[in-house]
Design goal:
234 residues, alpha+beta, Deoxyuridine 5'-Triphosphate Nucleotidohydrolase, Chain A, 3 domains, four-stranded antiparallel beta sheet, 4 helices, 16% helix
Length: 234
């Protein structure tokens, strides 16, 4: 699981599923249409006190959206939400389970109750090098308003099996279709090395650097993209 000196992540499926279930993709390859259509500058908003810049020019926002990989819905699932969200029914035509349910008692006190806790099934095994885990989170900066994945961490170097994803249906009462290939979960590998924390007051040099960085960012919208991010990638 090492290529060109860098750790790699592997997504494995049964031979009979290859070409049948939707495949994982890099997050940068699954950008939502609304973001692609968004202009970098809203000309109608430009004024002496407003640059008109949109989040299309916000690199931290974009970097979050493009971080890691996307696990999609393996096969099409139909959901019906009823009784103000307290009831959830699911159906599918695939030959494997796609949705199962947890007991409400498992999440007593959770703010999403009385919406029932459910689980979407995933048929990809994820493998990472020794010392690497994966953080599984809802899609960053692109909630769909229908379901909310529950975040979790799995030591994917030690757990070579399917990881299924708990969720709550958050949409209004009605019928919804989660099409095969719909982006579902963002997968972010990370090394489990311990990181020591330090809490202290900044030095005069650090304060000056902070102020210079803030002023450079305010002076030109491209500073972070051209400077800080470029240094990270070298």
């Amino acid at each position: 699981m090492w290529g060109a000196g860098r750790p790699s992540i592997e997504f494995l499926c049964e031979a009979r599923d290859k070409g049948v279930i939707a495949e994982p993709v890099p997050a940068r390859a699954a950008m939502p249409d609304w973001y692609r259509r968004l202009a970098a500058v809203d000309a109608a908003a430009v004024s002496p006190t407003n640059s008109g810049l949109t989040i299309k020019r916000c690199m931290p926002f974009l970097d979050a959206m493009t971080l890691g990989w996307i696990l999609p819905v393996c096969a099409t699932v139909r959901l019906e939400i009823a009784e103000n969200g307290a009831r959830l029914d699911a159906g599918w035509d695939f030959d494997r389970p796609m949705v199962t349910f947890h007991n409400r008692e498992q999440v007593t006190g959770h703010p999403r109750l009385p919406r029932p806790p459910a689980k979407l099934h995933n048929y990809w095994t994820i493998r990472t090098p020794k010392g690497w885990s994966c953080l599984f989170v809802p899609l960053l900066n692109r909630a769909d308003g229908v379901i909310e994945i529950v975040a979790g961490v799995v030591d994917t170097d030690r757990y070579p099996s399917h990881i299924h994803f708990p969720f709550f249906a958050t949409g209004a009462d009605g019928r919804y279709t989660l099409e095969k290939g719909l982006p579902l979960v963002q997968v972010i590998p990370f090394r489990r090395d311990a990181v020591r924390s330090v809490v202290r007051a900044e030095t005069a040099d650090e304060a000056a650097a902070r102020e210079r960085t803030l002023r450079a960012t305010q002076a030109g919208d491209g500073w972070y993209r051209l400077e800080a991010r470029a240094r990270r990638e070298t």
